[in-house]
Write a structure and sequence with these properties.
alpha/beta, 5-stranded parallel beta sheet, two-stranded antiparallel sheet, 9 helices
């Protein structure tokens, strides 16, 4: 019987790749098939990886967070499950902002119990909330951090997020337009929408400095 879902797994630790392969092989329903494994994010647009239903990606590759790469993949329509050792609420939230539809930690019981279900949900176009994600959301709400309800982040489109990252990262509006392949007028519209969304959330950001502060608070900007 053909598997329901195909995946590509990207992790720079062989032991993790082996663990995922074992869990999938142990699934009695054979619902998932690994068609590509790698220790880097190259070559995801060619070969079997290009048509994989879901990408399972470690959040830290070669010692660096790959949030921007995840955001770029998500913007191209790839469905992503993050499988990471990080359990900090801010990191989990930033992965969600980048476009990950599920976040599973590498703590053994969570991976074994939830990774396949998360993959199936994400392949079906849904999101999946793991116990670690739920705890992170609850903890942020209870402790009044930048993720708390009093500073609830607006929901931005992928293009709005990418525009903010590029512009607040130092590019001019014309530079952002060239990078994204859109008009400068569209860049301006994306930034205006972002400011409007912050204003509706009670967080005015009329200047570049203000917008940088709010975006930084929400984890939108990389390290």
């Amino acid at each position: 019987m053909a598997p329901d879902v195909t995946i590509a797994v990207i992790d720079d630790q062989d032991v993790v790749l082996s663990g995922i392969q074992t869990w999938i092989a142990e699934d009695p329903l054979r619902r998932v098939e690994i068609v590509h494994t790698a220790t880097h994010l190259d070559d995801l647009d060619r070969g079997p990886a290009a048509t994989a239903d879901v990408l399972v990606i470690d959040l830290r590759i070669d010692g660096k967070l790959v949030l921007d790469q995840i955001a770029e993949l998500a913007a191209r329509g790839r469905r992503i499950v993050v499988f990471s050792q990080h359990a900090e609420p801010e990191i989990i939230y930033r992965a969600e902002l980048a476009g990950a539809r599920a976040y599973i930690t590498k703590e053994t019981s969570e991976g074994r119990r939830h990774l396949i279900e998360a993959i199936l949900a994400v392949a079906a176009g849904e999101s999946y909330t793991s116990p670690t994600q739920a705890a992170a959301m609850l903890g942020a709400s209870e402790h009044g951090s930048g993720l708390a309800s009093g500073l609830a982040p607006p929901r931005f489109s992928d293009q709005e997020l990418r525009t903010m990252r590029l512009w607040l990262g130092g590019l001019t509006r014309a530079g952002v337009a060239r990078q994204m392949g859109i008009s400068e007028h569209t860049v301006k519209q994306y930034l205006e929408r972002a400011r409007e969304k912050y204003a509706r959330a009670g967080r005015e950001a009329p200047t570049r400095v203000d917008l940088y502060r709010e975006a930084r608070r929400d984890g939108i900007l990389g390290e």
